[in-house]
Specification:
mainly alpha, 406 residues, 73% helix, 16 helices
Length: 406
């Protein structure tokens, strides 16, 4: 296996390198994994992959077949993660390297904003993710992620990770982390992604709730009120806020098209990653659409009701694992929950999992959660509140019994 820094660099700095890294990890796992762990999430992901393959064969779609191969690689990637024993110190080092290397992609975004980075559309710049695969007319940065909205997903998650690191850093380390977070905030703003901005706030709110529990209710409530107030009464304060209502109308049209497409093939869907190749008369939308701009709707459109049920099934067990880690007071629970909440929030208005480079966040977080959660239960740290309740009840019963015998 490649070193950690080289692996993270491949993931962060090029969509093509990220895909090649994923295929490499999948191949390594396929030939070196001693056993396949089929916990409920893995069963759901395996069935989802098999269903996607069946739909691709049914429609004789090579595009869906290729996308299913990528999904199978994510299944093997998940198996690689849950087969390892993750120590807290190891995760700390991994998260630190991820944050610092991720700040480098934000610096590239700043250079793009200042027109100091190659912007000509060619094979190399597209492979590096510097230029969107689909041209956009607005002045927005893509960083190293091929699309402003996908870049915003990464920057939102990195900001949440930065908050977690800031709390654990020394005084000198805090200054460096604050500087890096300012760079990331600027890059997030330059993407012009309102969905990414919402994802950052939602993920930060979830982080605070998991980290501080009841003490965070006031702050999180204030953040939610601020977001709603700005969204409906001062949308011009948001990135590209002058286009807020126009973008909302466009989203509604896309969602209607996606819903009609799902209802036309409710069982099988149209095939994974096939929406872009459908003609306008079939999608009901004048221009090609890569996805339905909502994660759940996109899954339903591509893999039908069966695929949607399997995907939701997987989410249930991820959040169950996050609850277990939170109840046990594990130090990485807040940042994992915040990252997952950010992706879910962004998934309300976009489909960040469409790009493997962003989907790695989801599958990486899911794998870590489901790898750490069983370790919590086996060490007796699961749900300490319930354990304390049982102990107190047992003591009360023992005391009552001793009084009775007297």
């Amino acid at each position: 296996m490649m070193g950690v820094e080289l692996s993270l660099t491949a993931i962060l700095y090029s969509p093509l390198a990220c895909l090649l890294w994923l295929v490499g990890v999948a191949g390594y796992t396929l030939f070196h994994l001693r056993e396949v762990k089929l916990e409920p999430y893995s069963v759901g992901l395996l069935l989802l992959t098999m269903w996607s393959f069946a739909v691709a064969v049914f429609y004789n779609s090579w595009v869906s077949m290729a996308a299913t191969v990528v999904l199978a690689c994510f299944f093997l990637f998940h198996q690689w993660i849950i087969s390892r024993v993750w120590q807290e110190e190891e995760l700390d080092r991994l998260f630190r390297r991820l944050f610092h290397l991720g700040t480098g992609t934000a610096l590239i975004g700043w250079l793009q904003q200042m027109d100091q980075w190659p912007a000509a559309a060619n094979v190399f710049t597209r492979m590096m993710g510097w230029v969107p695969l689909v041209p956009i007319s607005e002045d927005r940065i893509s960083g190293t992620f091929s699309n402003p909205n996908f870049a915003a997903s990464w920057y939102a998650v990195l900001l949440i990770l930065g908050l977690w690191m800031w709390e654990r850093a020394s005084r000198a380390g805090k200054r460096l982390i604050v500087a890096e977070m300012i760079v990331l905030m600027g890059a997030l703003y330059f993407t012009g992604s309102r969905g990414g901005f919402m994802a950052w706030l939602a993920g930060t709110g979830c982080y605070l709730l998991v980290r501080y529990r009841r003490q965070a209710w006031f702050g999180v409530g204030g953040m939610a009120a601020l977001l709603l107030t700005v969204g409906f009464f001062r949308p011009e304060w948001l990135p590209r806020g002058h286009l807020f209502w126009q973008s909302l109308e466009t989203r509604l049209d896309i969602w209607r098209s996606g819903l009609d497409l799902f209802l036309s093939r409710p069982v099988t869907g149209i095939g994974l990653a096939n929406m872009w190749f459908l003609p306008p008369w079939e999608t009901g939308y004048p221009v090609p659409l890569p996805h339905a701009h909502n994660t759940l709707l996109s899954v339903a459109v591509e893999l039908g009701l069966i695929g949607l049920v399997l995907f939701v099934w997987m989410q249930v067990f991820v959040w169950k694992g996050l609850y277990q880690l939170t109840a046990a007071g594990r130090p990485h629970a807040p940042v994992l929950a915040g990252a997952m909440a950010a992706l879910m929030a962004h998934g309300l208005v976009d489909h960040p999992l469409f790009l493997p480079q962003v989907a790695l966040i989801y599958f990486g977080v899911s794998g870590l959660v489901l790898s750490l959660a069983p370790a919590v239960s086996t060490t007796g740290q699961l749900a300490p509140d319930l354990v304390r309740f049982w102990k107190n009840s047992h003591r009360s019963a023992t005391f009552h019994s001793s009084i009775t015998h007297r």
